[in-house]
Fold this sequence. Notes:
Blueprint: H1 3-21, H2 28-36, H3 41-68, H4 73-108, E1 112-117, E2 123-128, H5 131-134, H6 146-149, H7 153-164, H8 170-179, H9 183-213, H10 217-220, H11 224-241
Antiparallel strand pairs: 1-2
Amino acid sequence: MPGEQIILVGAAASVGVVHTLIGPDHYLPFITLARARNWSLARTVGVTMLSGLGHVAGSVLLGFLGLALGWALGGLERFEAMRGEIAGWLLLAFGIAYLVWGLRQAYKARPHSHRHSHADGTVHLHRHSHRGEHSHLHDAGAGLETKSLLKGATAWSIFIIFVLGPCEPLIPLLVYPAASGRSLGIVIVVAVFALTTVATMTTLVVIGRAGLERLPAARWERWSHAVAGAIIAACGLAMQFGL
């Protein structure tokens, strides 16, 4: 492998790891949704990996299209920035909608009392909540098939948002081998970038999920969906306004 190619591969690997680490939107939505919706580890990993692959694939396809149309690096980066704005607004809208829905579920699951009267004239209050009925939801489909992993509006929504979301750091890495006419170089760069991005996303999500599992669920489970929505909305804001 030529020295230039080694440097390019190293850059692709480094950028794949770093851009994921510094972008909380790459892992926080999956961590919070996995806990709120009680996804199994297999499903959490599957949804994260599929979304990560879609995230990279979307930018690769559009990058190739731009190069085929003769766009310069600046044009590709401007287009990716526009996609970033769209993805940021979508993530923000999804987070707000999920937050509102989560607050509604928390309200339904609030502890309350019922008055019971018996034949002997005894009256007592029975205090309980419907937490088990409303807030502890299970998403079915822990299998490894795509159809099962993305079953449900929540998983599909986050997957589609990630497919639409840009991978700005990948564009400069594609331009150099494309300009040199090195098809194999493009394939290697894309493969390394995709592998490191998805691997970093998955590792962070698994670690974060394990950390949340250690928290006392009884104290915050009622609010888990609202918290997830708020965190996702915050990620959308960060994407949109560079916070």
